[in-house]
Write a structure and sequence with these properties.
- By secondary structure, the protein is α/β, with parallel strands linked by helices.
- It has 2 domains: about 5-110, Rossmann fold (3-Layer(aba) Sandwich), CATH 3.40.50; about 115-270, Rossmann fold.
- Helices cover about 45% and strands about 15% of the residues.
- It has 9 helices and 8 strands.
- The protein has helices at about 15-25, 45-60, 70-80, 90-100, 110-130, 155-165, 200-215, 225-245, 255-270; strands spanning about 5-10, 35-40, 60-65, 85-90, 145-150, 170-175, 195-200, 245-250.
- The strands form 2 sheets. The chain has a 4-stranded parallel sheet with strand order 2-1-3-4, sandwiched between helices.
- α7 crosses α8 (about 225-245).
- It is elongated, with a radius of gyration of 29 Å.
- The mean pLDDT is about 90.
Amino acid sequence: MTAETPGVYIVSDSIGETAEMVVKAVTSQFNSGKIEIRRIPNVADTNTIDRVIEQAVESKALIAYTLVLPELRDYLHEKATSAGLICVDILSPVMDAVQRSTGLTPHLEPGILRKVDDVYFRRVEAIEFAVRYDDGKNPRGLLLADIVLIGISRTSKTPLSMYLAHKRIKAANVPLVPEVSPPEELFQVERKKIIGLVVDAQQLLTIRKERLKTLGLMSDANYANEMRIIEEMEFAHKIMRRVGCPVIDVTNKAVEETASKVLEIYYRGLSHV
């Protein structure tokens, strides 16, 4: 950037994306190809501001800034004005107007918008993960999961996976069926990431019979047979003992209650890493 080439320095205590968008929108009205834009992100001290001021003086550049910390904002404005530079505060006028209108106090936290966006995108990513690796669809996902839920049919594996996804936890689940060997990937997952789900046999029998009714099927099918359920449970316990995972009894528990126990186990495991 030189005195011959008009330019704008963008100074921000975050990444400066907001100010850059505004400046680009404005410079597009002035043959923007002839105006150079230079972004100075993550400004956290006055020394950086001093260096920007020096460079802006040399190139006779404009300074646009998004600084939420009052001490940095005031320092930049004072120094730029003393140096005869034009500087534009992108955030403060709107922030002040919102404060006057609502009576609320701003957080004054740099990068807070990006943090909110990151939380949103992590949640979406976790939900997509839960759908992609639901019901053992793709065993490779087990090695990528934060939590792997295992259990026989109707132990709330899928709703629990989706609930955890809204907490930004990537959960995969594997149904345990006596006739089908669990995928080898399950035995490669860290033990602390696997959680077994069990339920009272009589309650499960009732749930399965209701499930068959909603599907318009006979309630005496093998799926809702008490001996079959006991066989499945014995197989599930065998697998859970083999992987050495904690087991949660979901009998009469809401998904939220079970999720709370799952998260307690998960975070306890992380604390022992």
